[in-house]
Amino acid sequence: MDISHIVEAINAIPAPPSPPELETVLPPLPTLQLSEVGHAARSERALTVFAGATALTVGGYLALFVHGFWGTALCVGALVMTTLSISLKRKFEVEHRDAKAKLDEQRQAWLAQAGPATFEEERRRLLSLAGTYSGLPAKEREMLGELEKTKRERQFTSYMKSQLIEQAKIPGVGQSRKATLASYGFANALDVKNRRVTKLPGFGPSLVGEVEAWASSVAQNFVFNPTAPTEPHLVQQVKSTVTMERVGLEQKLANAPDQLKSISESAERLRNAPPQTLYDALVRLKQIEVDRG
Length: 293
Description:
Blueprint: H1 3-12, H2 22-25, H3 36-66, H4 68-86, H5 93-114, H6 116-134, H7 136-149, H8 151-162, H9 175-183, H10 189-194, H11 205-220, H12 232-254, H13 256-272, H14 276-292
């Protein structure tokens, strides 16, 4: 795949323009009247004001003719209650805040999708994939280089695995003790090197020392062969991994220009006709503002 042509095509597609002011593209708002909730709130306010006025009258009488302290306290309470009930904004505070937050959320989503934000984000993602694709040859070389760096370790591991305990001559360790070692997972020199031979039936410190000394002597006899070729199956694993990644990236990049064009067309549709949910959120906010006065 010629990645340069795809990158040019990705960069050549113009980003959508910024959307206009939301109110200029939304349908006209309906004529909003007080809802049942608004009427109920006003009826409740009228009752509260009436109760406050009554309490104020009683409190004044008490203050003048019965008990000055309790009458004054009742007057103050009545004034506070009446003052708070005059404005309905406190009653609708939570609903208004939630409606405004919902509208802001819908507006931000519309701005991102109808403007250049979503488009540019996708363009950056696709260009990043193109960069990853271009770097695949270097990645394959690096992975093969790592195989070369770990060749000694793999040769050593293979050599130690090939040195079987059942074929070894270890002082004090006959066939029955070799069977015990095998039953506990000690089959070769690598097993002894990687794990401590302790708490096995019939193995005291002396015998444990003999087994570990044997494994150490085996390790000392290892000779690294740097000219040996890297295992073909490991090389093939690297190549297969890179090939699978290459195929996946090619599939994504082949559709990149069409994908960006689709996002641009969708943005144009949204600029001309915002979603119904956005209109509904605005109507709900305006209705609450009418109800609270």
